[in-house]
Amino acid sequence: MPERAKLAILIVLGVILAVVMFYVVKGESPVAVAAGQQGAYHPIAIENPALHLDRIERLRKLEYHPTGRDIFSASLPPPPVDKRLPVLPVGPPPPQPEPPLTVPFKYYGFTADAVTKHRRAFFTNGDDVFIAAEGETVQGKYRVITIGNTWAEIEEVSTSRRARLTMEGPPPGTAGDSPP
Q: How many structural domains is the chain composed of?
């Protein structure tokens, strides 16, 4: 490209830059000036252009009553509270009842003295067998309260919780089993 063509392009670009800078400094863009010149100015039709002071005063006295909804959250607000229902006081929950006593052994029989009518119960825990009379302890932790014909009442010594054990047959494979 010849030097003369380069100089002409440079001059044209300089003129364009000067026009753009003129509008930027002036504060108007050429697009806004062109858009404003296309149509004539028509003001908005207002029936009464006077200042409505009564409406402004009514808006000043208006109080805001929040609905409880967070405007920055998309979740729904909580349901309204029914004021007809009595509000119960919130306090600590009632204590939970103690779970029933679980005894690690089974009651499987008793013996009674014919003269004194004194009973002794048989308890088993796997291969271990315990014999205890009424009032005695089993494994140092459980006291035998009452021995019945088909049940035995046991009390845990430390908590005084009680459990009633029903009589079960002897465990399989013991000497008490008879062959079929």
A: 2
DSSP annotation of 67 reads -
Burial 49-80 (b: 16+ CB within 10 A, else e): eeeeeeeeeeeeeeeeeeeeeeeeeeeeeeee
> What is the maximum alpha-carbon separation in the chain?
144
DSSP secondary structure code for residue 72 in this structure: T
Range of the domain at 25: 3-34
With CA atoms as reference, report the closest residue to 151 among 116, 112, 108: 108
Q: What is the pTM of this model?
A: 0.44
- Is 10 inside any structural domain? yes
In a domain, 45, yes or no: no
Which segments of 113-161 are extended strands (E)? 119-125, 128-133, 137-138, 142-147, 151-156
Is 35's pLDDT higher than 60?
no
